[in-house]
Amino acid sequence: MKKVLIFLVVALLLVGCSGNNSNEGDKNKKEDLKKVSVVLDWTPNTNHTGLYVAKEKGYFKEQGLDVEIIMPGEAGADQLVASGKADFGIGYQEGLTQARAQGVPLVSLAAIIQHNTSGFAAPANKNIKSPKDFEGKKYGGYGSPVEEAIMKAIMEKENADVKKVDIINMGEADYFTAVKRDIDFAWIYYAWTGIEAELRGEKLDMLYVKDYSKELDYYTPILTTSEKMIAKDPETVKAFVKAVSKGYEFAIDSPSEAADILIKEVPDLNPELVKKSQEWLAPRYQDDAKRWGEQKLEVWKNYSDWMAENKLLEGKFDPKAAFTNDYLPE
User: Fold this and answer.
1) At residue 25, what are phi and psi to the nearest 5 degrees?
2) Both 207 and 223 in a single domain?
3) Closest by alpha carbon to 51, among 90, 107, 106, 108?
């Protein structure tokens, strides 16, 4: 009997040690993951789905990363990435171009959407069918000089005058409220606001800026980091981009499941809007590129040349240094 009791005590001790080692192993495994952060450009939406998929599906963990997705707050994503307060960010080619011209060392790692899906949108009853119809109408803008320059560029192709447009700064006002009360048209991303209009049963006339000028078919949004991050930790950059690429590839192949992941992670979103938006965006993430995220020098050069011609750049800009495809998976 004594021998049996001794055996049981030893066995229990061994089991206890085994359990402790297992917990310790899990703890160490988690601690082995490198903590990095990525800051969004705006509230979560289908532009960001690949990030949430990579987190939920464990693609970041596969690459040894523990990734925190954070909101920009008062400081924008570009500012947080450039200052080192975030490792990666979501930005836009127009913003990064202006930043680099002013000496801010941001770099684009991938084009999240291959072609520009933004444009000027108006309710069908406003009768804005072409840029010439902007004349005499009220435009709700965000206070950026780029807006008027783009409007001018596409209006001039139809011998129309941007000075005949009443430009109103509507700040962060809701598009649907604004077009019923204060304005006739505004600049939107169709994948979100345009799809929401469809769900509301409100017909829009959408004028995509890329349809009027190849210079305006720029990358928006983009995945960014800083030159410092690339220099000090290229392996982490490579690992992060590989996981994000896998996330967007999943969203391309399985938009419904990807939408479910975004809805689960951000339950405040309208599920129907997320589903429809994801379906619309899925073929547009990669589009005609040979792989998701691929960027072309000509796209960066065309847009920066256009910005320079329109006196929207302060300082010199080198398009070759503004982006890299080196960290995209083959």
Assistant:
1) -65, -45
2) no
3) 90
Q: Which residues contact 321 (CB under 8 A, 6 or more apart)?
A: 100, 107
77 alpha-carbon distance from chain centroid: 10
Strand order in the sheet with 34-39: 65-70, 34-39, 88-91, 222-226, 106-111
DSSP 8-class letter at 292: T
State the DSSP string of 197-252. HHHHT--EEEEEGGGT-GGG----SEEEEEHHHHHH-HHHHHHHHHHHHHHHHHHH
- 238 in the same domain as 123: no
Tokens of 305: 């040349």
* Domain range for 130: 118-216
* 227 and 316 part of one domain: yes
Distance from C-alpha of 57 to C-alpha of 129, rounded to nearest angstrom: 43
11 token code pair = 């066995």
How many structural domains does the chain have?
A: 2
Q: What is the pTM of this model?
A: 0.89
Element (H, E) at 223: strand 222-226
Residue 162 falls inside a structural domain: yes
Determine the Cα–Cα distance for residues 194 and 38; give it in Å rounded to an integer.
27
CA angle 212–149–323, rounded 5-degree value: 75
Asked if residue 248 belongs to a domain, the reply is: yes
Report pLDDT for 30: 56
Structural domain ending residue among the three candidates 170, 198, 216:
216
Same domain flag for 110 and 224: yes
Neighbours of 110 (CB within 10 A): 24
Residue 138: its pLDDT value, please? 97
Is a pLDDT exceeding 90 seen at residue 228? yes
Residue 72 C-alpha from the chain's centroid: 12
How far apart, in whole angstroms, are the C-alpha atoms of residue 90 and residue 329? 19
Distance CA 27, CA 35 (A): 14
137 and 271: one domain?
no
Give residue-wise pLDDT tens across range 137-185: 999 998 888 999 999 999 999 999 999 999 999 887 899 999 999 999 9
